[in-house]
Write a structure and sequence with these properties.
CATH architecture: Alpha-Beta Barrel
Strand content: 35-45%
Structural class: alpha+beta
Order of helices and strands: EEEHEEEEHEEE
Oligomer: single chain
Largest sheet: 10 strands, antiparallel
Number of helices: 2
CATH class: Alpha Beta
Shape: globular
Number of domains: 1
Length: 162
């Protein structure tokens, strides 16, 4: 099965509250399932309604720091205001304009998805305006021995000044 990236679309995202776990290390080594289970369990214990789709926020562009120093957040949106606890942090994410593309495929094909997204941003007169956000639409699956990820990859953007 070959992965595929959809076409890029411009979207307006509403502000939301994020409950998240911080991670430092190579992006390929993030224990997503463990963090996501921890987040949903934390929300349930506090009677907080979580969003349906967990997400990853990648604070450092590949190549900007050594891979072992990459900073990321794995999180879920939550409906209620609640205080951070048990290693789970909470913050508000502002409304933003994003360039978004769908990714369906193995992790090693993310670079092609990001390249297509980056090319679109430049070609349409925008520039990156914040860390990339991946929203996972369903649990990863294994197909033909490869892990397949289903994500909407979103880059916050602003019009480039000339």
């Amino acid at each position: 099965m070959v992965g595929m990236a959809g076409s890029v679309k411009l979207e307006e995202r509403k502000a939301f509250t994020l409950a998240y776990v911080e991670h430092m290390g190579d992006y390929s080594g993030i224990p997503f399932a463990e963090y996501i289970d921890r987040l949903y369990s934390w929300a349930k214990k506090r009677n907080v309604r979580p969003g349906f789709h967990p997400m990853g926020i990648f604070l450092d562009a590949p190549g900007s720091r050594p891979p072992g120093k990459h900073r990321s957040e794995v999180g879920i949106s939550i409906a209620e205001k609640v205080r951070a606890s048990s290693g789970i942090k909470v913050r508000n994410v502002p409304a933003m304009k994003v360039a978004a593309i769908s990714h369906k495929g193995p992790a090693e094909e993310y670079s092609a998805t990001y390249a297509k997204l980056g090319d679109w941003i430049v070609a349409h007169g925008y520039e990156w305006a914040g860390p990339c956000i991946e929203v996972y639409s369903k649990r990863p699956e294994t197909v033909d021995g490869k892990g397949i990820t289903y994500a909407k990859v979103m880059a916050p953007v602003k019009k480039r000044r000339h």
